[in-house]
Amino acid sequence: MKSWLFLIQWLSFLICLNGATKHSWVLLDNSEEAVLDAIKRSAFYGVQEIQLSHDIIMDIDEILESEQKKQEITTYARLAHQ
Q1: CA–CA dist 11, 8 (Å, integer)
Q2: Cα radius of gyration (the chain)
Q3: At what angle do helices 32-42 and 67-80 cross, to 10 degrees?
C-alpha cells in the first residue's frame, strides 16, 4: 500500500508543478499511521484539501457515538490545518 501512496503523492506533486489550481488528496487507508504520515507529507506536495474516505469515517454519527473516533478525526483536522 505504501508504494501506491508514494506514487499518488508523487504524481500529485507533478500535477501541482504544472499549474493545477486546486490540489486535493483523498486518504483511503484507515490506518492511523498512514493517515498521519500522509497529512504530514501533504504540505510538501502542495496539497490544499484533504478528504477522508468512508473507510475512515462514514457519517457524523460515528463521531457523536464514539469518543475515540471523535478524538481521531479531531487530531487529523488539527494536523491538516497546521
Answers
A1: 5
A2: 13
A3: 20
* Per-residue pLDDT tens over the stretch 4-28: 666 666 666 666 666 656 778 899 8
**72 vs 68: CA distance, rounded Å:** 6
**Cβ neighbours of 38 (radius 10 Å):** 22
Going from the C-alpha of 32 to that of each of 28, 29, 36, 39, 73, the distances in angstroms are 11, 8, 6, 11, 10
The predicted model scores a pTM of 0.69
Measured distance CA(61)–CA(82) in Å, rounded: 26
Annotate the chain with DSSP letters as a single string: -HHHHHHHHHHHHHHHHTT-S--EEEE----HHHHHHHHHHHTTTT--EEEE-TTT---HHHHHH-HHHHHHHHHHHHHHT-
